[in-house]
């Protein structure tokens, strides 16, 4: 027998009122074996109450005594002791894209106080079977056949009860079918409700009072329509799903539209702002607005977490006696990855759509967007937004990644203004798990200020720039954070004080005017936000910041100026249509006005872009165009085996910054595109394609020392090492240890890359690459490299997602000295092996180059052009004007009725 200290005692909770049906004294089980016996005082009737929830206190005999409360659910059984009466039922079916398979939609309903008498019943059609619906005669379940069109269907049935010998009791069912488009589902808002089941949410019949009442779903729909100031018919509550049975937790998903569908950020934001009002009027307890399985730190993932909307073709049925809802089965799945940097899935027009009416074009090689005028993002995003000092705009919240990079540009003449805020907009609810995380970036007296809180304390970073940033010019802010460290960089640190001597002494880099760093207060590690991302100002209900335990608050003064190119983890935000906004417009009228003042800039719109600040404007030609007003098409050049171009520049390249842009087209996997180097070929950089991929490499020997002894290096090439310069890359990075130095773009064998070395005394090569895209598809691609000191970015075809990579640390040497006469090449570097013989190393052949720009200045491409105001082609070999195909269809005969189509150095029978 267990000791007395370990025996357990059971008794009803003092607050439980069951004196008329249960014995208040619970008898112990045999010998203190952890059991107790509950006994009733009378018989039960399921028609009166279906179940009892009995709180039982369990207490031991320890010192001190430990106790806990457990809920015992007593379900009352049923006997068929009531006759049925005629009944009617309403079934609403949301048919996702009109493609629902044959599916159960609800059971035939007759009025009967007994609900466990199904085995005694039989169900029949009153007349002939409806061609679009089926009936299970044993269960009364109705199924809708695939292909049923929108409309209202009136179905009539008869029900038979063998115990009471009732025959031909009529039952009428009205089925309403409505197609719900994909656009509605992906633009839906959502709430999570506690304390009621999915059946409770749609139920209109109260069995206790035996009366009809409006369902909570109807009340919720009315409330959403009222808050959005739209017609009730424009709101669809199309998914109600039970997430947990005990205690009940239900997810509700809804969509609304005027002309286009409202965005989720608007729907969720409206609900968030009026949460208490909705709870009171509808009679629900909302525990989450915007279902986010990544919101609570380390609950679903220990690290990065991305919400994925999983839409099933199989509908979800909720059956509640007189009503039934057949909705779309939608699940929010938590994927333990940084979604913006996960490139494991192939791109297609469904998962990578074009914005703002852009047309998505899929080929066997690539995916592109054909965009309407004015939308210049790679996926037709609107890249800029204007604010006038009294407005704001809402966008989707920042996704949760364990390592993040947020950057954007702004221009203003006002010294104070909130640029960005993502965090709570209403006070916390008393009974919910509080999430106090937030990020805010603002200008205060012309200087940038960052506030970041992961929920355990607020970090404040400030940068005292040499000049205030309210000068009307465009400025860029980069913010990096991981689980501990935060960094803010202003304007690529171009204002840093740099000292580099050639005597071998370590370089000096004073970044106090451009960079600030700090550590997040322990112990929370991630930024978890679920409210709208707000630009330009705040729509925030006034609340006491002590509710969230914030040490700092943003000043919050509205921003007067323009914001553009907002990226989070290489994903470009579309600023065209915010979920909600006030006194904010797409574009930047302030700079557009400056562009319109000059004839030169007003005429560059067709093949160029006016790049203007509040002070001046200039034309920036689109790739493939040149001239003062971007009216001249550039002429490409074909590079044959052993081909190259050597340049002499007429300008002095910047030491701290290198900008390279060019167009290329190839089906080869190897070759050098472009290079610049110093006088002795010791300082360099490389833009290259390796194994059909874009890659940029750089070298930092001090950081490689630990890799040389790693076991993984045993299988590497003799003159290569492995360095991962970006945490999210899944492939190793190979670095060739060159003894000579240049900055050059090359196609070699692994990925498309750019590499560079800034130390003239020894190799400190650094690299960035694009490993998730292929470029040997014969299509024209635009490559762009930007280097600022030892930091660099690599972009392909607009530079978003898998087409962007970066390395952004300022370590070691920062200057690159370019030899204007001997250090600039395209297509490979020629090394003379004799008086008239030469060898082109990493030869770019059987491909084309076009529109090469260095620091934004157009360089010539022979034979069409030998010189521009920025440079001359002093040597050129084995080149051909234009970029003709090699006539792949010449010896191809396609079977009837197909014809051979020239795809440039490749063919296809179509």
TrEMBL record:
Q: Which UniProt keywords apply?
A: Calcium, Disulfide bond, EGF-like domain
Which chain positions lie within coiled-coil regions? none
Instruction: Outline the extent of the Cadherin domain.
Output: 37-88
Answer yes or no on keyword ATP-binding: no
Alphabetical list of InterPro entries matching this protein? Cadherin-like_dom (IPR002126), Cadherin-like_sf (IPR015919), ConA-like_dom_sf (IPR013320), EGF (IPR000742), Laminin_G (IPR001791), Neurexin-related_CASP (IPR050372), Shg-like_Ig-like (IPR056370)
**What Pfam families does the entry give?**
EGF, EGF_Teneurin, Ig_Shg, Laminin_G_2
Listed transmembrane segments: none
Gene Ontology MF, one? calcium ion binding
Q: Can you cite a GO biological process for this protein?
A: animal organ development
Domain Laminin G residue range list? 382-588, 634-883
Cystines in this chain: 371-380, 621-630
Origin superkingdom: Eukaryota
**Identification of the protein by name:** Neural-cadherin
| CDD domains recorded | Cadherin_repeat, EGF_CA, LamG
Kindly indicate whether the keyword Calcium belongs to this entry: yes
Instruction: Name one cellular component (GO) term.
Output: membrane
SMART domains attached here? Answer: CA (SM00112), EGF (SM00181), LamG (SM00282)
All residue ranges annotated as the EGF-like domain in the record: 345-381, 591-631
């Amino acid at each position: 027998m267990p000791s007395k200290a370990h025996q357990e005692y059971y008794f009803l909770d003092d607050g439980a009122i069951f004196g008329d049906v249960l014995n208040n004294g619970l008898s112990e089980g045999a010998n203190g074996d952890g059991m107790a016996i509950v006994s009733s005082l009378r018989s039960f009737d399921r028609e009166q109450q279906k179940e009892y929830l009995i709180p039982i206190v369990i207490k031991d005999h320890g010192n001190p005594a430990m106790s806990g409360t457990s809920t015992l659910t007593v379900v009352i059984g049923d006997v068929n002791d009531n006759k049925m009466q005629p009944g009617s039922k309403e079934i609403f079916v949301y048919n996702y894209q009109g493609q629902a398979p044959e599916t159960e939609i609800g059971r035939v309903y007759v009025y009967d106080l007994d609900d466990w008498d199904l085995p005694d019943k039989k169900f029949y059609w009153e007349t002939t079977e409806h061609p679009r619906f089926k009936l299970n005669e044993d269960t009364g379940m109705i199924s809708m056949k695939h292909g049923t069109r929108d409309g209202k269907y009136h179905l009539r049935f008869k029900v038979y009860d063998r115990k009471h010998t009732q025959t031909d009791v009529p039952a009428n069912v009205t089925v309403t079918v409505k197609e719900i488009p994909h656009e509605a589902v992906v633009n839906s808002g959502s709430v999570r409700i506690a304390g009621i089941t999915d059946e409770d949410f749609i139920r209109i019949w109260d069995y206790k009072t035996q009366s009809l009442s409006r369902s909570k779903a109807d009340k919720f729909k009315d409330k959403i329509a009222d808050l959005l100031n739209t017609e009730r018919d424009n709101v669809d509550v199309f998914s109600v799903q039970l997430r947990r049975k005990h205690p009940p937790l239900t997810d509700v998903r809804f969509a609304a539209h005027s002309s286009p569908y409202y965005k989720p950020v608007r729907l969720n934001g409206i609900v968030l702002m009026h949460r208490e009002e909705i709870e009171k009027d509808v009679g629900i307890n909302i525990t989450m607005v915007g279902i986010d399985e990544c919101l609570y730190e380390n609950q679903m993932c220990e690290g990065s977490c991305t919400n994925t909307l999983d839409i099933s073709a199989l509908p979800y049925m909720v059956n509640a006696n007189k009503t039934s809802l057949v909705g779309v089965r939608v699940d929010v799945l938590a994927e333990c990855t940084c979604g913006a940097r996960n490139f494991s899935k192939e791109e297609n027009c469904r998962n990578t759509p074009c914005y703002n009416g852009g047309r998505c074009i899929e080929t066997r090689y690539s995916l592109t967007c054909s965009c309407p005028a004015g939308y210049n993002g790679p996926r037709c995003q609107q890249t800029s937004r204007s604010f006038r000092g009294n407005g704001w705009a809402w966008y989707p919240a920042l996704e949760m990644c364990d390592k993040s990079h947020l950057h954007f540009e702004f221009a203003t003449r006002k010294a104070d203004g909130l640029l960005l805020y993502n965090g709570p907009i209403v006070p916390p609810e008393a009974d919910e798990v509080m999430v106090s995380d937030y990020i805010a970036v603002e200008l205060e007296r012309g200087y940038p200020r960052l506030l970041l809180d992961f929920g355990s304390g607020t970090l404040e970073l400030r940068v005292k720039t040499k000049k205030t940033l309210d000068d009307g010019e465009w400025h860029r802010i980069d913010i990096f954070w991981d689980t501990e460290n935060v960094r803010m960089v202003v304007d690529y640190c171009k204002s840093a004080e740099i000292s580099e001597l050639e005597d071998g002494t370590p370089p000096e880099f004073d970044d106090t005017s451009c960079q600030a760093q700090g550590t997040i207060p322990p112990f929370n590690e991630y930024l978890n936000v679920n409210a709208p991302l707000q630009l330009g100002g705040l729509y925030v209900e006034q609340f006491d910041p002590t509710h969230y335990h914030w040490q700092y608050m943003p000043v919050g003064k509205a921003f007067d100026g323009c914001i553009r190119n907002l990226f989070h983890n290489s994903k470009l935000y579309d600023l065209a249509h915010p979920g909600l906004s006030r006194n904010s417009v797409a574009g930047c009228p302030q700079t557009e006005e400056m562009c319109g003042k000059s004839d030169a800039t007003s005429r560059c719109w067709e093949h160029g872009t006016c790049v203007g600040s509040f002070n001046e404007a200039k034309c920036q030609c689109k790739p493939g165009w040149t001239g003062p007003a971007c009216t001249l098409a550039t002429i490409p050049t074909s590079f044959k085996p052993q081909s190259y171009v050597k340049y002499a520049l007429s300008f002095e390249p910047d030491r701290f910054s290198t900008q390279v842009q060019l167009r290329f087209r190839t089906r080869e996997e190897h070759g050098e595109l472009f290079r610049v180097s110093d006088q002795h070929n010791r300082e360099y950089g490389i833009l290259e394609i390796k194994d059909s991929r874009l890659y940029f490499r750089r070298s930092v020997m001090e950081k490689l020392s630990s890799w040389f002894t790693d076991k993984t290096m045993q299988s590497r090439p003799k003159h290569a090492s492995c360095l991962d310069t970006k945490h999210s890359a899944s492939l190793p990075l190979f670095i060739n240890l060159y003894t000579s130095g240049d900055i050059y773009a090359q196609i070699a064998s692994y990925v498309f890359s750019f590499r560079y070395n800034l130390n003239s005394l020894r190799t400190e090569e650094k690299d960035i690459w694009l490993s998730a895209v292929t470029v040997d598809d014969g299509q024209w691609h635009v490559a762009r490299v930007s280097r600022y000191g030892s930091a660099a970015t690599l972009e392909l075809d607009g530079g978003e997602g898998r087409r962007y990579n970066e390395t952004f640390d300022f370590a070691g040497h920062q200057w690159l000295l370019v030899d204007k006469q001997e250090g600039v090449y395209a297509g490979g570097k020629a090394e003379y092996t004799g008086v008239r013989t030469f060898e082109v190393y990493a030869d770019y052949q059987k491909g084309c180059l076009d529109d090469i720009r260095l620091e934004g200045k157009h360089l010539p491409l022979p034979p069409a052009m030998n010189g521009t105001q920025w440079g001359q082609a002093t040597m050129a070999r084995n080149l051909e004007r234009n970029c003709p195909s090699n006539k792949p269809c010449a010896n191809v005969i396609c079977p009837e009725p197909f014809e051979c189509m020239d795809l440039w150095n490749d063919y296809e029978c179509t």
